[in-house]
Amino acid sequence: MRVVLHTRVRADRVAEYEAAHRKVPAELVAAIRAAGASSWTIWRSGTDLFHLLECEDYGRMLAELEKLPVNIAWQARMAQLLDVVHDYSGAGAEAGLPVVWELP
User: Fold this and answer.
1) What are phi and psi of 13, to 5 degrees?
2) Sequence ranges of the domains in the chain
3) CA–CA gap between residue 101 and residue 84 (Å, rounded)
4) How many CB atoms lie within 10 A of CB 1?
5) DSSP codes of every residue in 49-60
6) Contact status, residue 71 vs residue 64, Cβ threshold 8 Å
7) Which long-range contacts link 52-58 to residues 24+ away (Cβ below 8 Å)?
8) What pLDDT, on the 0 to 100 scale, is given for residue 57?
9) What's the CA gap between 6 and 72, in Å, rounded?
């Protein structure tokens, strides 16, 4: 499944956010993959962050990651850098942003 998320980094923390993502712990990367993710890309426009995640089951992935110490530490670090965490608009919040249009 594809999941698209929107988050927002604090304006005074952009450089720190990008630096953190240049050094994502290998243990966390392995855990994300083991939880079913096959890819995860983040784009930034100003302070807006757009994530495209491909995984087997997003809810299950989150449930598996939430209890891992490496993820708990990472999420605590990200909480210091982000203004908006997973800004879900409308229904289907568990699957991220709703699809409006796709090229057939």
Assistant:
1) -125, 10
2) 2-87
3) 24
4) 13
5) EEEEEEES-HHH
6) no
7) 52/2, 52/3, 52/4, 53/2, 53/3, 53/4, 53/5, 53/96, 54/1, 54/2, 54/3, 55/1, 55/3, 56/1, 57/1, 58/1, 58/3, 58/94, 58/95, 58/96
8) 93
9) 20
Q: Which two tokens stand for residue 102?
A: 């796709």
Distance of alpha carbon 25 from alpha carbon 14, whole angstroms: 19
Secondary structure (3-state) at 42: strand
Structure token pair of residue 35:
């939880």
Contact 23, 77 (CB under 8 A): no
Round to whole Å and give the CA distance between 104 and 91. 23
Tell whether domain 2-87 is in CATH 3.30.70.100: yes
**pLDDT tier for residue 13 given thresholds of 50, 70 and 90:** very high
Q: Over the stretch 64-85, which tens digit does the pLDDT of each residue have?
A: 999 999 999 999 999 999 998 7
